[in-house]
């Protein structure tokens, strides 16, 4: 025996090369025999349980085991009927057809308590529990899944739906569908298929089925396509079936599923006339229509010819619909006689039992078939775990609609979107500047998720045709003036193709249009001439958010059409396009953060508002290039009249230094136009005869140049409490072109006077032959502003708008916001009672910047949080964003690195003080963090170590300056929460994986 064992081949593995190979081979063989023994023991145990249960069943109960009845738990009559059938006929199972999760669990327990044999519980969850139950997730249709090229995600979808079903005590589900889309005319039925490609359908259905099985759920595959069967003749009155020539094509998915262990199948309920009614079949008085034969005898063919060993389910109501005569019990009897094992939804259980009893008495051979089928059902119950005692397991809705499930749904949506046409290679949109954009929503109002998310990437004007019948000619004429048009066609736009044939044709012929179909793929034929065509498959808020992200390159796209539409649009059409590394939008968990932890931000923000640290604020968090938190709190003012929104624009104060002036200096250094290690007087000769002649640019950028912190220059332009007519006028003119405040304008000479006073200013004293120490100063950035405009030969605000803000899509970012936006979109700052004597709205808060007309090196920039985040993400990506390289990576690394051992500063950027409570950042931030704060209550912090961007904007200086936002550490406390959410997510993931492994 020993020698025989050592010579046995094991899966072709050769162990002779290893030391002790013979011993290893023996032990592996013994292990396999050991496992085989217990596998055999398990089979014996199953047979023993099946035989034991079967022996206790009455004739009626045996027939009852072959029956599954529908139950709607929201109906008392339905529940009472099922209870009676369970008690009186021992039906084999039930299929829940409606209700909510809690009711399902409660009634599941109720029915099981009254059952002599545990009930097999079914639920149609082809698209998730939401297919049948309220308050649960609805996943994409099979057709939408057929567009996904990532096979593994279909397996995980099956596992996730299976997990949810198991939590409810459900054992079987009627999925997946293995039919080809070409088998159906109905759009609804096509939507339940994976497409028209047999290989792709086979692959998708197999993975979906395997996922269910991995979760312990028995999948009932749909359907065996009876329309491939026809009658070739008759033997003793029974039809002989044959397959049509296209068998291999349409049956490939099922054959693959059979190879992979398909446990059950639902024979097709579709009915097509295959041969003429007047053909002689069976007896003239037969109750079976000739067309019905393929449907009825599908099960027999499966078992006899294809050797299918699983359970065959038959949907009785459809059998009933194809019988010529229809007495109670006939449909059920014919379905069973034709080889089906389980009867779904019979109309009359009592009549079924009576008819079958009578039929078995006529033909005793049928009793053996009954025994075989009942035991087959009992084995299925054993596989479902029903040999063990059923106990109610209370289900919380959060256990079903988990974040993991929600994230899976989002991933499915992203992976399904298909770029059908991209003739001009317009997608993803790379160039944003010098273009005009418009959106047209057909079947939705102007304000919807599609239009609002488009506006997160670029300035887009929005139009809509929300309902059929609205005149579209004017809209069409208005759209002709735009460079790019995004047309969203929504499922709710029923009848649009009939109402607007000219509009749809015109849109399809526009070379600059991107048509986005949020309906079924069949609608694509209406736009097959569109040069850019996007198929989104479903119309819901999530998909409306995802499509704009794909259009602008925030997300990659890889979907392929699962079926042929017409001669112009073939199956498998679809372009795989990479992302442009623009921002996308995600749940915190998709980026490795905890949603629950981030909710603490709201509490801190409300504390700031209630404590009058600021009337309102915006908070933005970006992790791994994904916007995971974008929220606005409070109001413009303490009058609580205008709420802050994500579109609200704030005065950034000193963030101007790093988001405007520093970006220009980085550009000049990046292009070797300046060198930060040279003296500033080398580039500005006018400084050579001043006390600033030896100042090095690096010292200015690190605030170690010895410049005084601040010079209050505005008093020098006043005559007492009045404005000097030499510098100010109440009228805009060529001599007074600079807008200082409402109704007040600065003179041409004011700019030169301010500059002269600047380079005449004193320096801080220091010991001889020692460098200056860190002393924060605005004056250095006044000098850098002057230097930038001198070297660029262009106003700095114009340069930044043309070369950074517009190309990057930061539409709200810039100087002089009142030239581009309505004052109602801008949060007010201070009520200036000393200098300008007015409420400042859209006019820079800083006095010196105002005297320069609103454009200065240290202040004057305005923006919302999202657009600042784009600049922050570009820097986090080493100067790359949206397909463009704005700076060399080494330039970003140089400017953001700590420059001196005795100073925390980078070049222009502030940085954390490690392990020091005086740090301007969270104590959790890494040494690589860089950012800045602003006097009006703003900040941006970028942490490459954590792949993180944090933006906080507020107007804390309204209605007057106060230090509450600083003293209560609102900004850094929110930053603490952000880091804590990362740590909490890591802990939660560890606990989640541990719980799933048990």
Describe the structure.
This protein is an alpha/beta fold and 998 residues long. Among the domains are: 2-41, no CATH class; 225-347; 418-580, Rossmann fold (3-Layer(aba) Sandwich), CATH 3.40.50.1700; 589-648 and 908-998, Beta-Lactamase (2-Layer Sandwich), CATH 3.30.450; 651-676 and 706-863, no CATH class. 37% of the residues lie in helices and 14% in strands. The protein is built from 35 helices and 33 strands. An eight-stranded parallel β-barrel has the order 1-2-3-4-5-8-9-10, surrounded by five helices. Strands 11-16-15-14-12-13 form a six-stranded mixed β-sheet. A hairpin with a 2-residue loop joins strand 18 and strand 19. Helix 25 packs antiparallel against helix 35 (970-997). The longest helix is centred in the first third of the chain and has 35 residues, at 21-55. The radius of gyration is 37 Å and the shape is elongated. The chain starts with a helix and ends with a helix. 48% of the residues are buried.
